[in-house]
Amino acid sequence: MRRLKVCYVLSSAGKPILLSATLLGACGSHPVTVGSLDAQAATDASALNQDVNEVLITLPPYDARGDVGVPVPTGPVVATPAGGTLATLPDGCIDLGTAGLGADIAGSRTARVAMEWVTDSSGKRAPVTLGRIRIAPEIVSLMVGLPTVEVTAKSPASASDPVISNVRTDGNGFAFDAAWPSGAPNDACWNWQEPSWIFRTTLRLQCGGQERTVEASTTVALCGAGGRTWGSSGDACAECAQVCEMAPSPVVPAKADDDLPLASALSVALRALVRIDDAVVLLAEHAATGGLDYAWQVSAGTIEHLDRDVVLWRRPGSAGERVALAQVAITGTDLAAVASFRWDRQAA
Amino acid sequence: MGPAGRVSASHVVLLGPNQQENLALQYLAAAARQAGHEAQLVGFNCRSDTANAVRAVAGIGPDVVGIAMQFQHSIDDGLALARALRGAGFTGHLTCGGHVATFCYAELLRDGAFDSVVRHEGESTFTELLDALSAGKSVAGIAGLAWREHDGVVLGLPRPLVRDLDSLPWPERQPVPYLVAGIPIAFLLTSRGCTETCSYCSISAFSRDASGPAFRLRAPGPVADEVKHLYDRGARAFFVQDDLFVLGSESATLARVMALTKAIRLRGVSPDSAVFWVKGRPDSVSVPVLEALRTMGTLHLFLGVESASAERLAYLGRSHRPEDNQRAIALCREHGIVPSFNLMLFDPDCSLEHIGETIDFARQHPDLPWNVCRTEIYSGTPLYGRLKAEGRLQGDYRSYGYRMSDERAEMMFRILRVCLHERAFAFDSLLNRLISLSFARQLHEHFFPDLATLQLSREVLDLVRAVHVDTVDILDESRALASEPRLDPHVVRQRAVEMALAASRRALTWYSEVDRLWNHLHVRGRSLLPSPAS
Q1: CA-based nearest distance B24→chain A, Å
Q2: Which residue of A lies nearest to B509 if distances are taken between CA atoms?
Q3: Does domain B11-155 have CATH number 3.40.50.280?
Q4: B422 contacts in A (CB within 8 Å)?
Q5: Average pLDDT of chain B?
Q6: Residue A47 predicted with pLDDT over 60
Q7: CB contact burial B104-124 (16+ within 10 A = b; e otherwise)
Q8: How far apart are CA B288 and CA B291, in angstroms?
Q9: What per-residue confidence (pLDDT) applies to A89?
């Protein structure tokens, strides 16, 4: 199993700056690290006595045995919610690089908030929604008391304000009620644009005889026509992107037994694992194993290889083109596939 | 395996695609509720939704879970979801249904973690299943059901199709309507089944495999009642998901459409304030039919063009001729109805020359919303039977495939599989999104006819035209490559990759334009459309 660890700091202006991206478990047991410390960022971080933040993501395949793994953030993910603060685990308490993560934790967020509609027996939405807080089990075991939850930001400014209450235990995690005095939100744009809220979860952990406070922020947004679907940082929504009679995608058995070229089919998707400002880590996700060649190219910026199928793509600063493209061509003896990732600064 | 017959209460979660609502599951949920059971729908569109779906089921804690399996390509995802549910500790009754499940029940019960399969139309079968489970009884003997018994599979007696569609409760829709271009849209069925016998069609096969009439119409009054109900909820556009809305006979269509129009108007819904998307066949389109559809408020007609080759149309079991395609499109243009269509470029016995005829057809209509595809093989269809008898069926029930008899056609398909995947074949392909965008701009032309809309419409049409011209070029290039003699595998692979990379680069700004226009129309529609209350 491979895991990606991304380290970054926040500049004095609150801008996340990448320090390094490391792939653990690739190429035998040797970690591969790319990225370089930004001098100004280091100075800023040092001046602020700021911790280095980490994002840790487990890479696919998750479901080789049909089980459920850690959901990978997809789409143009901003792992750092604007104005949010990722949790930083206390030194000597838990080593995130080796600790197993719970199935519901995306990235290395210590806590992740997800919202659900509550409906009555007639299927009507209640004015109170259910918030669930997922926390890695090894962290839950260190917790002192219940977490606290608050909304620290919202977009647009006119979005409803939830009133949070009744924080309680819920299975392996926690839950809370979010009342919407001005009515449950039901208006949403496509693709998680808005409305959205940043929920900050604060935990108290008992670490080595000391009590530490840890904060984690999650962006929670509504998507789907009529604001039907809740999503949290890293989720993707394609619920209402289409309204048409769709042509069927071709279904191709694993391998055609013939001597014609391109006998095998390969379905590839380029997924953004994490994005820190002008850098994004991309994974070429597919189901094939071994014996494949990868050729990466980008329309702007540079690529650094973490593995054959995982790269760090840095785009030039804001002066560059609005939309840039990363492509990967994967070839094997009897197959070829190409996948693209479009990065639109305006959409992101 | 879930212990059938041990459930004390019937609370069911239905899992299936929800991208354009899911009337099939919503009808099932409504039937379950009417019988006194609890039912909830959870979206499951593809494999990557598995974790969320499992989490949702665990949170709800149902006694029964049903998984929709409509198409061959959804089987693997459904099997994985069933395994994941069991792996996560779900011990209740696990069932599935849909077109493919109806035909592949034995394989699904053999390979999957399912306790039963609901075959054909499921409202009565599913409700009886829930009744039995909630009463602690065995599900054995329920008509329309297949179930496990002593490590074997037992098939219940066949259950006839629902004769009176108006006896069914309305589908249990989401609390608020879907929005397209900021306009609330509702999905609707006014009939079930089809009168035709196309060789590749799973709908026809599904209806004909069960007893009872394959095609059934709802009465105009109840349809109009449902339209009014949805209109009162805010819906202003109605996506009619009937497999056959425009009937085979002109007189029957006119009588039907006029009766629907009259009934809808009687309930206070005018064509100015409510519009329709319907489906029809090219040989059923005539001036009177289009005039009647226009009077009803129809903006968009999904037209079953399929191919521009007479030979291919005959092979596919279509009743129309290529000239019907051109005539229908010309008439639609004259009557202000936009036709969209999918072109089935490939089938098991097509030739490169046949494909060329259909590419030429696409070239003539760059401004219309269309996509291209290969004819897929669905269980139970005549084409499935034909390929099986000919020993040409590849793969298994989870992914049937075939090799075309014309090697050049097969080669062209394989090249396109590489270079046109993102553009045409993927779920969120550029061409699919352009069809959606075309409907969105039609909605604004209808509801907000001003200069700004005119400009937006031009932008959408320019975009559609540019992408289609480029797509036809790709089709031409791949066809030319496939027709070259003695193709070197390395050269073909390299050329396909180069074409794919170049196609993707050319499409870079088009994707952003689709996003921009789609979102702009959405926001604009929300701000311009008066609320139902006003």
Answers
A1: 16
A2: A323
A3: yes
A4: 338-340
A5: 93
A6: no
A7: bbebbbebbbbbbbbbbbbbb
A8: 5
A9: 39
Q: Are A16 and A50 in contact, with CB atoms under 8 Å apart?
A: no
Of A124, A187, A256, the CB nearest to B175: A124
Q: Which residues pair with A54 in a beta bridge?
A: A7
E strand segments, A25-162: 32-34, 53-58, 111-116, 128-135, 148-155
CB atoms A68 and B395 under 8 Å:
no
Using the Cβ of B493 and the Cβ atoms of chain A, whether some distance falls under 8 Å is answered with yes
Tell if the CB–CB gap between A225 and B178 is shorter than 8 Å: yes
The structure tokens listed for B4 are 């059938």
Give the C-alpha distances (Å, rounded to integers) separating A89 from A54, A86, A210, B303: 9, 10, 13, 59
Q: Chain A contacts of B425, Cβ < 8 Å? A: 247, 249-250
- Nearest Cα residue to B149 out of B110, B122, B177, B179: B110
Is the model's pLDDT at B114 over the cut of 80?
yes
Gap between the Cα atoms of B22 and B12, Å rounded: 16
| pTM as predicted | 0.83
Interface test with A, best of B400, B497, B516 (most A CBs within 10 A): B497
Provide the b/e sequence for B197-207 (b: ≥16 CB within 10 Å).
ebbbbbbbbbb
Residue A325: its chain B contacts at CB < 8 A? 504-505, 508
Residues 6+ positions from A327 with CB-CB distance below 8 Å: A270, A296, A297, A298, A338, A339, A340, A341, B501, B504, B505
Q: How far apart are CA B453 and CA B456, in angstroms?
A: 5
Positions of CATH 3.80.30.20 in chain B: 176-526
Span of A184-198, A287-301, B366-380, B506-520 with lowest mean pLDDT:
A184-198
End-to-end Cα separation, chain B, in angstroms: 54
Looking at the partner chain, which of A71, A121, A226 has a beta carbon nearest the beta carbon of B178?
Answer: A226
CA of A58, closest CA in chain B: separation in Å? 14
Q: Give the per-residue SS3 of B295-308.
A: HHCEEEEEECCECC
Report the SS3 class of residue B264: helix
A245/B418 touch (CB, cutoff 8 Å), yes or no: no
Amino acid at the residue A233 = S
Over residues A168-195, the pLDDT tens digits come to 998 778 999 999 887 767 654 444 445 7
CB pair distance less than 8 Å for A252 and B512: no
**Which B residues, 283 through 322, put their C-beta within 8 Å of a C-beta on chain A?**
302
According to CATH, the superfamily of the domain at B176-526 is tm_1862 like domain (3.80.30.20)
Count of CB pairs separated by less than 8 Å, A with B: 244
CB contact under 8 A, B19 and A239: yes
Maximum Cα–Cα distance for chain B, whole Å?
70
* C-beta separation of A243 from A113 below 8 A: no
Cα-based distances in Å from B353 to A192, B125, B291, B312: 45, 48, 36, 11
Residues of chain B with CATH 3.40.50.280: 11-155
Tokens encoding B149: 């018994």
Lowest mean pLDDT across A319-323, B100-104, B345-349: A319-323
Question: Which residue in the set A249, A256, A334 is minimally distant from B427, CB to CB?
Answer: A249
Q: How far apart are alpha carbons A109 and A232 in whole angstroms?
A: 12
ipTM score: 0.89
φ and ψ of B45, to 5 deg: -95, -30
pLDDT per residue as tens digits for the range B453-480: 999 999 999 999 999 999 999 999 999 9
In chain B, residues with a C-beta closer than 8 Å to the C-beta of A227 are 176
Average pLDDT over residues A214-226: 71
Mapped onto helix, strand or coil, the DSSP state of residue A217 is strand
